[in-house]
Design a protein that fits this description.
The chain has 173 residues and is of the alpha+beta class. It has 6 helices and 8 strands, in the order H-E-H-E-E-E-E-E-E-E-H-H-H-H.
Length: 173
């Protein structure tokens, strides 16, 4: 079982905590507050680019709590906690009027565990001895990553994580 402390230790200084945003604390779960203020959210390279944790949390439309962005399109990309549902969502708004947020993970704890699992999987490939060369066996790699993510929860079957697995399975990435 992956612990939050294990994640914090693994990412080290890349795991950034935030100054407390007292005006929204009553809309966040105790676990979410613990993660934001004590554990932190990591910067990492992943599916879609390099993800950057902000220095301060930002409230958007009195509903979303933005904690991160993406390096190549930081002024257009928002990674947030939906304060109504607790879900992790993202928005990519190039034209300035896209208010659609897409599901990323069911909550911040699941998000951290997925990022940790994905990052370890990519950075610590011990699998070539078991699965063979990636480009010849990409479907096996996709199945193994999905198996590991399913040990956390079923978020891998939805939206972005499902797209990652599908593209790995097809050999696109």
């Amino acid at each position: 079982m992956i612990t939050l402390e294990e994640i914090k230790e693994y990412f080290g200084k890349e795991c950034k905590t935030f100054p407390e945003v007292t005006e929204v604390n009553d809309r966040l779960s105790e676990k979410t507050k613990y993660i934001l203020y004590k554990i932190g959210v990591p910067n990492y390279s992943g599916y879609g680019g390099d993800y950057i944790t902000l220095d301060r949390l930002q409230v958007i439309n009195n509903r979303y709590l933005k904690y991160g962005t993406r390096k190549r399109d930081r002024e257009f990309y928002s990674e947030c906690i939906d304060m109504l549902t607790g879900q992790i969502v993202f928005n990519l708004n190039y034209d300035g009027n896209n208010n659609e947020y897409h599901f990323w993970n069911s909550n911040l704890e699941a998000y951290l565990k997925y990022v940790y699992t994905y990052t370890k999987y990519v950075n610590e490939f011990e699998i070539p001895q078991k699965l063979g060369e990636y480009y010849k066996n990409h479907s096996q790699y996709a199945k193994e990553l999905k198996r590991q993510l399913l040990q956390i929860n079923k978020d891998v079957e939805n939206e972005s994580w499902a797209n990652l697995i599908e593209e790995m399975d097809l050999g696109v990435i």
